[in-house]
Amino acid sequence: MKINSPACVVTGEKAVTLKHYEIDYSGVDCLVKIIRGGICGSDLHYYQHGRVGNYAITAPMILGHEVIGIIEKSDRAELPPETHVAINPSKPCGTCKYCRAKEENQCINMHFFGSAMYTPHIDGGFSQYKIVSGDQCIPYSATVDGQIMVFAEPLAVAIHAVKQAGDITGKKVFVSGVGPIGCLVAAAAKVLGAAEIVTADLSERCLQISLAMGA
């Protein structure tokens, strides 16, 4: 099954274009139609500087890793067509010592959507269609607004960050810098029981948004 799929591709500094790819779905894994995607700071760095840290763009790469979609085809009974899914952009190798110890989050060969860490680069999710492992697809109710669910991946990062502080029930939490991730950290801290959340930022707009998020 071959599908034409337009995608947002970065080729270098200040060089982003729309390209069409032919996706060949063989029936293995899940064919997902992407419906929304958030723009991460790493996507902005790839566009503005052609690199993130030491990882430079050396070939065309599809951007994006904060994506949600709808299953079109699947090799998993629990992920039938029309299932709405949030997509985990991380794919552990399954063979390193951490993966064998069931600590896949520590995988030393992690493949991550929209990353120039490896050559060839790993394409991201700013594509109309993407083939994704079923392990990376987390179903959610179709009744939930996609404008909310598209925050699933960055919110997961925020929740993980807050949990590093241990039990914050009844405690005061300080968040320094409240761009999108900082605001999600404030929201996560509120849900996890913080008594007070204090935020600081140079941007008055960001501060006002953080107040709406629970600070």
Describe it.
The chain is of the alpha+beta class and about 220 residues long. It has helices at about 40-50, 95-100, 145-150, 150-165, 180-190, 205-210, and strands at about 1-10, 15-25, 30-40, 50, 55, 60, 65-75, 85, 90, 110, 130, 135-140, 170-175, 195-200. The protein has a five-stranded antiparallel beta sheet with strand order 11-3-7-8-12. Strands 2-1-6 form a three-stranded antiparallel beta sheet, covered by helices on one side. Helix 5 (about 180-190) links the parallel strand 13 and strand 14 (about 195-200). Helix 4 (about 150-165) packs across helix 5 (about 180-190). The longest helix is centred in the last third of the chain and has 12 residues, at about 150-165. The radius of gyration is 19 Å and the shape is globular. The mean pLDDT is about 95.
The counted number of beta strands is: 14
Mean pLDDT: 97
Largest pleated sheet: 5 strands, antiparallel
- Protein structure class: alpha+beta
Please trace the helix and strand order, writing H or E for each element.
EEEHEEEEEEHEEEHHEHEH
**Percentage of β-strand residues:** 25-35%
Number of helices in the DSSP assignment: 6
Using only C-alpha atoms, the radius of gyration works out to: 19 Å
Rounded to the nearest angstrom, the distance between the terminal CA atoms is: 49 Å
User: What global shape is seen?
Assistant: globular
Helical coverage, percent range: 10-25%
Strand order of the largest sheet: 11-3-7-8-12
